[in-house]
User: What shape does this take?
Amino acid sequence: MNRFKNWKPPKMKHGKLTKWNWLPYYPKNIIIGKNVDIGAFSFLQGKYGIIIEPNVQIGSHVSIYSEDTERKINGQIVIKKGVLIGSHATIFPRDKLFIINFNVKAGSVIY
Assistant: This one.
């Protein structure tokens, strides 16, 4: 059985958990491709945009920020097709557009 047979992205509301317990901020700036699997209690801060391409797997408790207030950097985050991101990883923007096209190990902090 294909677990993605009837896959649809959840309805997202700013600051409210989805039915799969993701926490989106600025959901109008978050685009999620088909067959994306995001673990429970992951945080998506899409102020400057997050694009997650199809067939991406993201572990639980992952944080993705399009704004880094410490370093005063913001920019769109693009996670390319088929990327795997392990549990508890944190992703910050590097510049105006940050493309992740490699797998990320659990517990990593990516700038």
Notes: Residues 10 and 23 are 11 Å apart (CA to CA).
